[in-house]
């Protein structure tokens, strides 16, 4: 089930968070420069497997076909040309990270029995709509995803310890826990405590993945939720909701502290934050010398939208009539639907992340 059906309510946080927001902003400036890809140094880390955990920003086809719009037209029209379970018109974050590592995108866990040789690239356990806790989705949350992974390792016919020593885990968390918090009656007053609980659980998950033998872990910072079309729709797609982004900055500050602590405890820099906050912001503001990235004309507007507030991209009525509209050229849009980037959007984010991703190979 997609969780774009919930509008993130406005919430107010203490002015204290504004200063923390500036801290987070300040810490990520060095990611803004566009670096030409270095050839992977021989003495650096060369992952041969990618294991993926998280939600729709990373899912490449785990949701059930009967439940998710990601299996309905027009999803997948750019790649692979038909709906294939990705929440986009084409490729998503996982595909670009795999490309960066010089490997094919790992097979979704649900399709593992068709894997064969494809299993050598690793496996994707991410399910759209999930979070670290139980969300509005019935799909496996991150704890259960890691359980699947652990069971697979214990059944060591597929992966052995050496495989894990040359593997990278991608952990994507893009806000479904916060949707569920509000849907279940959470208040603005309680949000700060809830953010702390979410990041604490994420920290336990990172520690557990690392403890299973995975060499390096890349975890996403939360993207600017206030810039998603489901929020910008209230300003006719003109501006981001800064209140929401302030809360996101608090989440990201706690995540930075958690990762620093884990890296400190293990005396290595095995966990790297993939800074989706600054990369999204860079692309949306078109800052920096992003020579290869296109400029998106109305970056805060979705390409595919329901024809009414009750309908979403991919919805049809009983007669099979479309209840959505699609823009002429998905390549000209940053956002595909109310929550997810287009393939072109992810590509621009990927280009803005280059310097950040190089840290994985150190």
From TrEMBL:
**Which SUPFAM superfamilies does the record match to this protein?**
SGNH hydrolase
**Alphabetized Pfam families for the sequence:** Lipase_GDSL (PF00657)
Single biological process term from Gene Ontology: lipid catabolic process
Any one Gene Ontology MF annotation carried by this entry is: hydrolase activity
Q: Check the record and name the Gene3D superfamilies matching this protein.
A: SGNH hydrolase (3.40.50.1110)
| Extent of the signal sequence | 1-26
Q: Which UniProt keywords are given for this protein, alphabetically ordered?
A: Hydrolase, Lipid degradation, Lipid metabolism, Signal
Q: Does the keyword Hydrolase apply?
A: yes
Record has Signal as a keyword: yes
Q: Which PANTHER family does this chain map to? A: GDSL ESTERASE_LIPASE, OSJNBB0059K02.9 PROTEIN
Q: Which family does this protein fall into?
A: Belongs to the 'GDSL' lipolytic enzyme family.
Recorded protein name is: GDSL esterase/lipase
Recorded source organism is Ilex paraguariensis
């Amino acid at each position: 089930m997609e969780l774009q059906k919930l509008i993130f309510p406005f919430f107010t946080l203490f002015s204290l968070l504004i200063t923390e927001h500036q801290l987070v902003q300040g810490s990520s400036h060095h990611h803004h420069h566009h670096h030409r890809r270095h050839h992977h140094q021989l003495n650096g880390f060369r992952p041969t497997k990618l294991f993926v955990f998280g939600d729709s920003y990373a899912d490449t086809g785990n949701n059930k076909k009967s439940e998710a719009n990601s299996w309905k037209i027009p999803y997948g029209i750019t790649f692979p040309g038909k709906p294939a379970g990705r929440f986009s018109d084409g490729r998503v974050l996982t595909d670009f990270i795999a490309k960066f590592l010089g490997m094919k995108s790992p097979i979704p866990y649900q399709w593992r029995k068709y894997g064969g040789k494809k299993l050598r690239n690793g496996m994707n356990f991410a399910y759209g709509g999930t979070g670290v806790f139980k969300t509005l989705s019935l799909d496996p949350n991150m704890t259960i995803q890691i359980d699947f992974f652990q069971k697979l390792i214990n059944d060591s016919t597929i992966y052995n310890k050496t495989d894990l020593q040359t593997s990278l885990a991608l952990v994507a968390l893009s806000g479904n826990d916060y949707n569920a918090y509000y849907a279940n009656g959470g208040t603005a007053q309680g949000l700060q405590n809830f953010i702390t609980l979410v990041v604490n659980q994420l920290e336990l998950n990172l520690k557990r993945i690392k403890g299973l033998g995975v060499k390096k872990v890349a975890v996403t910072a939360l993207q600017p939720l206030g810039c998603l079309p489901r929020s910008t729709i209230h300003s006719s797609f003109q501006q981001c909701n800064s209140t929401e982004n302030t809360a996101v900055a608090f989440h990201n500050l706690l995540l930075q502290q958690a990762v620093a602590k884990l890296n400190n405890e293990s005396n290595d820099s095995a966990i790297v934050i993939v800074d989706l906050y600054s990369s999204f912001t860079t692309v949306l503001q078109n800052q920096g010398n992003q020579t290869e990235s296109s400029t998106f004309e109305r970056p805060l507007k979705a390409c595919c939208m329901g024809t009414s507030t009750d309908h979403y991209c991919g919805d049809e009525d009983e007669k099979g009539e479309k209840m959505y509209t699609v823009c002429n050229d998905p390549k000209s849009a940053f956002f595909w639907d109310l929550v997810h980037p287009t393939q072109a959007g992810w590509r621009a984010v990927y280009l803005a992340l280059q310097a950040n991703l190089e840290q994985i190979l150190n």
